[in-house]
Each structure stands twice: as structure tokens, then as C-alpha cells.
Specification:
alpha/beta, Rossmann fold, six-stranded parallel beta sheet, three-stranded antiparallel beta sheet, elongated, metal-binding, EC 2.3.1.286
């Protein structure tokens, strides 16, 4: 069954009542925080090569060179601050938590899941707790010893050196998913089920062309999830969404959450 499109006031109602909300965010939400999007390069930070230019073969050939490319990105993300849109999503999560507390008998029915394609960690810094980082995080490294594989926090005071695993001393690799690599299977499964079981899903600042995010919207819609897009530009997902707000992430969230300041 194809659900008809909805208007802003209906979207507000749904968002204010929905027990289960899933959110997908992409580069667009972090742009006001100064994190360059892949498409923007080359720009003011043209010296920071896009992360997708790296792969495991290149990394193994020259780990110090790979880290020399990666560290400036890590440091830029550490220096960046969450913006209004990140804070509004954190507030939305708190609202769902409050609804769950107000309805103890059906507490388990409430769930907020934020799935992000971003590696900048800004959602967590804004206070959101349920975050699935589909593409990993710039703030961690992963041990390249296959019998260890431990993930560890980066110590920025060590830049630009190759970080070594605290357990076995092997070189770490950036904790992000490189082009052509598989997503973490558990993260991908959790992200998908959050979308399928959500009453309302927000798709913010991403054209979701990256697999598998595009598939979430399609399947979620078939499962009855109301899809709301916030993006200044039309995307391939626009036609699938019940409502598409052609504004910035912060403006769109303010409108949907009825927040004036
Ligand atoms: Zn190790």
C-alpha cells in the first residue's frame, strides 16, 4: 500500500507521538560545523584528502603515509563543534526517553536510533546516546593484527605517528570504513532494523546513495514507516518520502519539532 504524502503539521503530530523514531544523517548535517563534505573537496581544506581515497592495500604499503593523510582529518573533527541540528536530535532522543518513562507499562515500545554515515563523532558530543556509526569513527583506530583486532581511542598527542595497539603493539589503522570495504555486519543489521520498525524515520543531509542506506528507506516505506527527508536539495529518495523539506538540517528540525529558539 502506498501511503499518501503528508504536510508539515501532520509530520509534527507524528513526530510528537511516535514511540519509535529512526534517523539517518549524512555529511550535510555536519557542514555548518565546518566538516567538509566529500563533494566539496577541493575547497578550503583541499589538503585533507577524502578518506575514501584510502584502502587496505595502500595502507599496508605505507602506514605512516596513510596516517599522515588521516591525522589532519581527525584533528579537524576534534576541533569542530556540534551545531544546532546535532543538539536538536539529542533533544529528540531525550523526548522519546521521557515518553518511555511516562508510559512504564509499554516502556519497551519506545526507541530512538540515530544512524549516521558521518565519522566525526558530533552526534555523541551533542549528547545523543543511541548512535550507530555506519562508516566507523575518526576518533578510533583498529589493530591490524587479525588475532587481536581491538579498537582503541586515538591519542592526538601522538599525531602524526602511526598509533600502536595498546594490547599487542601492532600498527593500528583508522577506525573508518574505506571505499570498497564491508560495513560492520552488526551495525548494518541494527541500522536496518531500526528503520523497519520505526514509526517515523528522518533522513537528514544525505542523498543516501551509499549502500546500504538507500535500501533502508525503500524497505522501511514498504514496512509502513513514515519517511521525512530534510535536505536543501532534491535527492533520489525524495520521491519515496512522505514529506521532503527543502531546507537546512537545523531549519527542518526546528520546523518538525516546533522549536522556535
Ligand atoms: Zn592488537
Amino acid at each position: 500500500m502506498i501511503q499518501p504524502p503528508i504536510d508539515l503539521s501532520r509530520a509534527r503530530e507524528l513526530l510528537a507521538q511516535a514511540p519509535r523514531i529512526a534517523v539517518l544523517t549524512g555529511a550535510g548535517i555536519s557542514k555548518p560545523s565546518g566538516i567538509p563534505t566529500f563533494r566539496d573537496a577541493p575547497g578550503p581544506q583541499a589538503n585533507v584528502k577524502p578518506i575514501t581515497a584510502m584502502n587496505m592495500t595502500l595502507f599496508r604499503a605505507d602506514p605512516p603515509a596513510a596516517w599522515a593523510t588521516h591525522w589532519p582529518r581527525v584533528l579537524a573533527m576534534r576541533a569542530a563543534q556540534p551545531n544546532g541540528a546535532h543538539h536538536l536530535l539529542s533533544r529528540l532522543e531525550a523526548q522519546i526517553d521521557a515518553r518511555a518513562v511516562a508510559h512504564p507499562e509499554t516502556r519497551d515500545a519506545y526507541e530512538f536510533t540515530l544512524v549516521t554515515q558521518n565519522i566525526d563523532g558530533l552526534h555523541q558530543r551533542a549528547g545523543t546516546r543511541q548512535v550507530i556509526e555506519l562508516h566507523g569513527t575518526a576518533h578510533k583506530a583498529q589493530c591490524t593484527n587479525k588475532t587481536c583486532k581491538v579498537s582503541f581511542e586515538l591519542d592526538v598527542s601522538l599525531a602524526p605517528a602511526v598509533p600502536l595497539c595498546p594490547l599487542c603493539g601492532t600498527a593500528g589503522r583508522p577506525g573508518v570504513v574505506w571505499f570498497g570495504e564491508q560495513l560492520h555486519p552488526v551495525r548494518a543489521r541494527l541500522a536496518k532494523s531500526a528503520f523497519l520498525y520505526a514509526h517515523v524515520a528522518l533522513i537528514i543531509g544525505t542523498s543516501a546513495q551509499v549502500y546500504p542506506a538507500a535500501g533502508y528507506a525503500q524497505e522501511a516505506r514498504a514496512w509502513g514507516t513514515t519517511l521525512i527527508e530534510i535536505n536543501p536539495e532534491e535527492t533520489d529518495l525524495t520521491r519515496l518520502c512522505h514529506l521532503s523539506l527543502r531546507v537546512s538540517a537545523e531549519e527542518g528540525l526546528r520546523a518538525l519539532m516546533d522549536v522556535t529558539r
